[in-house]
Amino acid sequence: ALRSLCPPSHLIEIPISSHCGSSVAVHTAVSSSSTDKMEMAAGGSSDQNMGEEGEVYHRDNIFEFFRNHTAYDMLPESGKVILMDSSISAYSAYSLMAANEQQSVPVWDSRSDRYCGTLTTTDLVQLILLCAESKEHESCVQGMRDMDLDHFISNYSRPPWGEQQASLEVRPDDDLMSVLRTLIRSNCRVLPVVERESVSVPIINQTIVGQVTYLLLFRFLYYHQEHDLGTLEGTLGDVGIGTLGAQKIVTVHASETVRKALRLMHEHEISGIPVLNDEGLLMDMYCDADVLQLPDLDLDLNVGLALEQARSRSSGPRYCCQIDDPLSKVVACFSTAKTARLACVNKQGVVEGVVTLTDLFKYLAGC
């Protein structure tokens, strides 16, 4: 059952429940045109044509899946939505996100009863750098304690804070194709799912039931359409997705500081940066979400050590794929890594590109 949302004093946790407790039903519809194409392929076409027609058939299945499922179908059957008041300190916001392992949290202004937008780990990178480079405070932590979210939103943050885009949202009954288009057109990484009776109804009288991200969308799609995604052919270069070319990729060495990594990410407006070892080969990927595990916000810690403390390390790079891998294998790598970005390496381990879930979904949507 959905509950009305009331402005928090500091933090509200809102339980999420599924439709009458039922599991998500999967309906895969195939268009008549797709069926015709498969019949043609089965009627004596060459193996290459059969492969091409088969991929078109499966891509049509993916499109139909997007159209026949809604944002609410994709949300977890149980969980919580954390909402932060804009009056709390930046450090409190950071601590709450770290303690609850949240990479994005909606922010509410209780004084004016309005939804401000969503604070993401990308915003935290900007906020941390701002406080760390300030000459008014002795440390980054002290600067974040002295700054409240409202001051950051009003004076420093980039759109959608304070802009019309801050009201971007999707409804529970919006189909996934509409959700995907909204994510792409707004250039957002996360959107709130808001239960509203009409556009004119104030959000204070409605409910935020969850958040939609590219990663959540991918997990839902992969769970139900793994077979269709497995038929995608062509390498990243063939289909033209991702940022390819070693000269285009921003990297950082494991021996360099977290401060430098964050500064590069902020300057180039990226959410993750490949980390290289002493030989110049891929070691791992440092992402904006890793700042949530940064001990005492020590920006002078080297990136390699910060990664070791942020998560358990495997024997080799987890967040990578081969530059010449077929697209179906790249999709499988995304599923295994459970991340929104992958570094693309050659057989020697040299980084030659980066591909994100945003790139993948733009390709699937024909953008």
Structural overview:
The chain has helices at 32-42, 47-68, 71-74, 90-99, 121-132, 140-146, 149-155, 176-186, 214-229, 236-239, 258-267, 303-310, 327-337, 357-364; strands at 11-17, 78-85, 104-109, 114-120, 190-195, 207-213, 243-244, 252-253, 272-276, 282-287, 320-322, 341-345, 351-356. It has 367 residues and is of the alpha/beta class. A 4-stranded mixed β-sheet has the order 1-2-3-4. A 4-stranded mixed β-sheet has the order 7-13-12-11. The chain has a 3-stranded mixed β-sheet with strand order 8-9-10. It is flat, with a radius of gyration of 22 Å. The protein starts with 10 loop residues before the first strand and ends with a helix.
Structural classification: alpha/beta
Helix tally equals: 14
Rg on CA atoms, Å:
22 Å
Which word captures the global form? flat
Strand content: 15-25%
The ordered string of helix (H) and strand (E) elements is EHHHEHEEHHHHEEHHEEHEEHEHEEH
Largest sheet: 4 strands, mixed
What are the low-pLDDT stretches, counting only 5+ consecutive residues below 50? 1-48, 159-166
- Look at the structure and give the mean pLDDT: 78
Give a quick set of tags describing it.
single chain; 367 residues; alpha/beta; four-stranded mixed β-sheet; 38% helix; 19% strand
Helix and strand topology:
Layout: E1 11-17, H1 32-42, H2 47-68, H3 71-74, E2 78-85, H4 90-99, E3 104-109, E4 114-120, H5 121-132, H6 140-146, H7 149-155, H8 176-186, E5 190-195, E6 207-213, H9 214-229, H10 236-239, E7 243-244, E8 252-253, H11 258-267, E9 272-276, E10 282-287, H12 303-310, E11 320-322, H13 327-337, E12 341-345, E13 351-356, H14 357-364
Parallel strand pairs: 2-3, 8-9, 11-12
Antiparallel strand pairs: 1-2, 3-4, 5-6, 7-13, 9-10, 12-13
